[in-house]
Automatic annotation (TrEMBL):
This is TolB protein. Keywords: Signal. It comes from the Bacteria. PROSITE patterns: PROKAR_LIPOPROTEIN. It comes from Pseudoalteromonas denitrificans DSM 6059. Belongs to the TolB family. The lineage of its organism: Bacteria, Pseudomonadati, Pseudomonadota, Gammaproteobacteria, Alteromonadales. Residues 1-26 form the signal peptide. Pfam families: PD40, Tricorn_N. SUPFAM superfamilies: Tricorn protease N-terminal domain.
Amino acid sequence: MKIKPLNKVKTLLVSSSVLVFLSACQVTEPSSSVTYSLVYGFKEQKTSKSIYLSDETGQSRIKIADVTDSDGYPAMSPDGKQVAFYGKYDKRRTWSIHVGNIDGTHMQRLTNTKHVWDSAPAWSADGKTIIFSREYKSTDGQWQEEVWLMNADGSEQRQIKALQGRAAKMMPDGRILFQSKVGPSQISIANRDGSNVITLTNDDTNNMSPKLSPNGKHIAYLSNRDGNQEVYVMDIDGANQKRLTINSIQEWSPAWSPDGTKIFFSSQSTHGFYDIYKVNIDGSSMEKVLNSGSQASTVHYVDNTYLQK
C-alpha cells in the first residue's frame, strides 16, 4: 500500500476500521496547508469500508485504504507505528486479534482460538503488552467475558482469572481500567493481577467503555442511567459524574483529544449509520465533525514517515 507523504500527522482519531489488508488503494494528493487530524471509516459498500484522513472539521480528507467490513476496535501503539485490531478472516466463528504496521504491511494474527470473540485490544504504555477481551458461550450456555494479556508479538497469552469484564485498558500506573460483567456493567479499576477491585460507578444501569484522560485525572464513559446511552465524564476516583450529551439516539465509543479538553464520540444516526462529534469536557460546544463516519476509538500522535512504504 502506497501512502503519499504528509506533514506531521497530529491527533489521530482512529475509527472502528483499520488501515490494512489491501495492497492497492487510491490516494488523493494531500494539501500542505491542512493538518490531517482524524482517521475514520466510511462504509462505501455493503461489505467494505474505506479509511480516510481528515482535518478536525471534516472538510478536508484523503483516502488512505480500503478494508473489509469485519475489522474493529483499532488501537494504535504508543510509538504510532503499529495498529492492533480484531477481525474475522475465516469461515469459523472465530474473531481474533491482529497487529500490523500502519501502512498495512507485516500483518500478523496474534490469537487464534476457535469459537471465541477476541476484541477490544489496547496497548500498555511501553508498547510491550496488549490487553484484550475474550467472549464466548460456555458449555452451560452462559456468556463469558474474560480479560486477557499477551506480549505484543502474541506470545505468553494469559487470562486474568480474577476479572470478568471487557473493554479493559492498561493505566500508566499498571492498574487496569475496565467494564465489569457482574450485574449491570460498572466501571472499575483493579490491580494487574485482578486484585483490589475498586468500583467507580454503582447503579442499576449499564456503565461501559471507559477511557482514561491523557492527564490521568478523568474517565470518559457511556451510561444509560438517564434512559438513553450517553457520554459521561467523572474524576478518577468516581466523583463528580457528569453527563455531557443529551440526545434521543445512542452514543458510542468516547475518545479523548490528546490535550484532554475534548471528547470525540460516535452518535447513531436515524439511518443506522454513525456520525462523529466532539464536545468539551464541561459539555459545551458540541459539534459534528463527520457524517457517516464509523465509531471513534483511540487518539494518538503519529509521524507521517510511518505512513509511507
